[in-house]
Each structure stands twice: as C-alpha cells, then as structure tokens.
Amino acid sequence: MAMFDSAQTHIDDLADFVVASPTSYHAADQIAVRLRQAGFEQVDERASYESVTGRRFVVRDGAVIAWVAPEELAPKAGFRIVGTHTDSPSFKVKPGALLRSAGWVELGVEIYGGPLINSWLDRDLGVAGRIVTRDGETHLVRTGPIARIPQLAIHLDRGANDGLKLDKQAHTQPILAVDLKQPLIEHLASLIGVKGEDVAFHDLFVFDTQRPGVIGVEREFLASGRLDNLACTHAALTAMESVESTGRDVAVFAAFDHEEVGSATPSGAAGPILQDALERIAAGYGRCTDHGD
C-alpha cells in the first residue's frame, strides 16, 4: 500500500475520499485524479490502444479499470485482480422529481440498493450525481445540505419506540422547501454554469452531507457514511498507486459500479467492462484470449 506518515494520515485520506465521492460518478472521478497523480495514463475505450504496457486506466461512467503491465509478458503470466465497487446504498432521484404534500415541496426518490432506511432520518441531505447537457457534455454536480427526511415527533406517533415501520414510497421523500422559487434542475444547472433548459438528462442521488469523524474514548473508530464500499475502494486504490513493478504478471484494479442493484450493467461486475479491458490488454501483447491460451 501507499506509505502514510501515520494511521491518522491514512484515516484523513479515507475521510477526504468519502467526502469527495457522494456518488459513484464522483468516486470514479476522484480515482482518475489520483491515478493521474500517481503516473497513470487514461486511455479512451472508443479508440485503439496504442500501448497497454505501463500504468494505464479507463473510466466508464462510475467504474474504473486500472492496470500496471510489464513491457514483456512471461510465458505463463496472468492477471492479478482486486475488485471493489464505487456505489453505496442511497436514494435515487426520480424523473419529474418534485412533489407537493402537506404544504411543502418534497423530492421524489426511489430506494437504491439496500439502505437502512431509519438511519437516514433527520440527517442533512444533499443531491449529487451526473448531468448531461444538450451538447452531449457530462457534468458532475453536488449541492450542500438542502433536504431532510424528518421523523415525526413522539406525540404524533406514540408507537414509534415500539417498532418504527417506514413505507419506502410514502415516508422517504425528503423535504426541500415550503415554496420552491426555483426548480431543482435549474438550481443544479446554475451550480455547473449552465441553464436549466440545457439539461437533457440527469442521474442524481441523495447523499448524507455529514463529514466522517474519528470517535471513541481512545479514538479508534471511524464513523462515516458510504463505507460500503468506498473503504475497500480506497484501500485498493492506495495499493495500486504504490505498485511499481508486477514482475511477470499484470496487476489490475477494478472498481465497478451498480453492485447495489445487481451489477448487470455496462459498468457493473456482471457486465462486460472487465472482460473488455482484459481482452484488449491481452490483444495488446499479441496474446489470443481463447480458453487455454
């Protein structure tokens, strides 16, 4: 792994990574930034690979495949792969997201993955994700704390302490405002310097804005959201940053997206992204990828 001056430095680095990664898109962007700083070169999946050797990576939506490959492969060389995922349990913003109920404006959301719903109550929530404008450009966006899923006061729900049951549709829509003067999409567009009418598509999520903290009398615990699975992603990333030589094999870091919803997407572990990368690496060495070679 990459060398840190102390355990606290490593914890601070993990906390910064979590804060910078409210969604899988942001996590992939942070991974790409750090890989470039570690001397990796990004290659474009849409183009031919001029070379597969050295330190390289590809980004596909919220997923990243990085590798360190020797100039020449030994006869029985293979791939040494560590896999993680960049997405975490959350709430996904629906199209036509704004609702009105009981005199306030709510954000229409759908459960993403398997969150512990009650743990999201009474938290300062933001909205983050990816926006695609009509010119085809993609933009990452995130707000500060703008929403909350409130819990009823005890005198309005006397049985709450005997067993709280939350309906995924009726009880999880975050409150945004009493009277929203600006549509949410226009607000998000303004954060990235475009007009609301220029937004063609969005993939947005609700996230907990609270920063991770070190707690406990002996300060041995890290309290944080999104540790599933950013903790493993961060560990694998810091290890990959420090890899100088793999000997005869190709070291591969695979950070997949959509593990929370089954992985069967173009950027998920059950999709083609890893196979695509491995086949192109093998082809770059002139190796056949048929079984047995």
UniProtKB/TrEMBL annotation:
Source taxon at top rank: Bacteria
Cofactor(s) needed by this chain: Zn(2+)
Gene3D superfamilies linked to this entry: Aminopeptidase i, Domain 2, Zn peptidases
Keyword check for Metal-binding: yes
Any GO CC annotation of this UniProt entry: cytoplasm
GO terms, biological process: proteolysis
Keywords for the protein's UniProt record, in alphabetical order: Aminopeptidase, Hydrolase, Metal-binding, Metalloprotease, Protease, Zinc
Family the entry assigns: Belongs to the peptidase M18 family.
Designated name of the protein: M18 family aminopeptidase
Protein source organism: Tessaracoccus flavescens
Organism lineage string: Bacteria, Bacillati, Actinomycetota, Actinomycetes, Propionibacteriales
